[in-house]
Design goal:
About 0% of the residues lie in helices and about 55% in strands. By secondary structure, it is mainly β. The strands form six sheets. Strands 1-2-3-4 form a four-stranded antiparallel β-sheet, with no helix packed on it. The longest helix has 4 residues. The two termini are about 15 Å apart.
Length: about 325
């Protein structure tokens, strides 16, 4: 039986659950950031609005929660390309309020997507820009979300000698590898929807600790598909698999890739495309894995949410479909 958890305000553009599903952050077309909290944390059966404030003059197009190890904080990506970081704080005897910690601004290019990842040493934030550049920021003090420094900047290309100064990117998608072992390097996958074919294909980037740089270790595209525009990527949680699983959405459907764990002599990881899912009748713009990394949820312009799973023989199939009510 269907049950309504909450009602979103008219003009809501984006939303994001926190790590435990007990808080929801939403962004609106008038720049309002709204926080909903579960009335009963034990069941999360209903939610109430606990904070609403206008944090920007233009529309908020994406909200992202900071990992819980660093407090209750969200990042807002706005239509003008700026990123602002907001933290829930207590000051003196005042009630909880959301305070601006940091603003990332760029005069000429827009931020298209951001994601946070935790390395063995610090919190990192990857930002993809409308000119095809990627910037990695590092938090300097775990107790101060306002202190960030630029760690690296590069373009989403395999050959480092290739640069594209006039690229126009409409969207980008980033997904971190959630492994947190001390011996494992930080890594993420990134794809672009742009007018520059070399930037589009999804690449896996890994931090080379010895040389303190980010290196592309895999490209998730067949030779004939490398110019396809990428709409969304999602890296599955790995619980005991001898390989990683990454989903990539393009105009041809949702590709499921297996990524090897052991690099070859050139430092590259093996890749294998194991499935192509194509039930959506339009572009897929958002994908999320469940906590076990076994079920993939996808949605797009058709307004339908689909759940996908693999059976014991490795065959992927549609497990469930949720269509919007009229």
């Amino acid at each position: 039986m269907e049950k309504s958890l909450l009602t979103l305000d008219r003009g809501t553009v984006c939303s994001a659950w926190n790590y435990c599903g007990q808080r929801l952050a939403t962004g609106s077309d008038d720049g309002t950031l709204t926080i909903f909290d579960s009335r009963d944390p034990a069941s999360s059966s209903s939610f109430a609005c606990t904070s609403k404030s206008r944090v920007h003059e233009t529309s908020i197009v994406k909200v992202v929660w900071v990992p819980p190890e660093y407090g209750d904080a969200v990042a807002c990506v706005c239509a003008d390309g700026t990123v602002s970081l907001w933290e829930e704080v207590v000051e003196d005897a005042q009630p909880l309020q959301w305070k601006l910690c940091k603003s990332f601004k760029s005069n000429l290019v827009k931020v298209l997507d951001i994601q946070f990842g935790i390395s063995s040493t610090s919190l990192k934030m990857v930002a993809a820009y409308s000119d095809g550049h990627v910037k990695v920021y590092e938090l300097l003090d775990s107790l101060e979300l306002k202190n960030w420094q630029l760690q690296a900047e590069f373009q989403n290309v395999i050959e480092s000698v290739s640069t594209f100064s006039k690229a126009l990117c409409l969207s980008a998608s980033i997904s971190w590898n959630l492994r947190r072992g001390e011996s494992q390097e930080s890594s993420f996958v990134l794809g672009f929807n742009s007018d520059t074919p070399q930037l589009n294909s999804s690449k896996v980037w890994e931090f080379d600790q010895a040389h303190q740089r980010w290196l592309p270790v895999a490209e998730l595209a067949l030779p004939e598909d490398k110019s396809d525009q990428v709409y969304a990527v999602a890296w599955a949680t790995n619980i005991g698999r001898p390989y990683e699983v990454i989903a990539v959405a393009t105009c041809k459907g949702i590709a499921i890739w297996h990524l090897g764990l052991d690099p070859d002599p050139n430092g590259r990881l093996s890749v294998e495309k194991v499935a192509l899912l194509s039930s959506h009748e339009s572009e897929v713009w958002q994908m999320e894995w469940d906590m076990s990394g076994m079920t993939l949820a996808t949605t797009g312009n058709d307004g339908v949410v689909r759940l996908w799973q693999s059976n014991l023989n490795g065959i992927w199939h549609e497990q469930a479909t949720f269509e919007p009510s009229s």
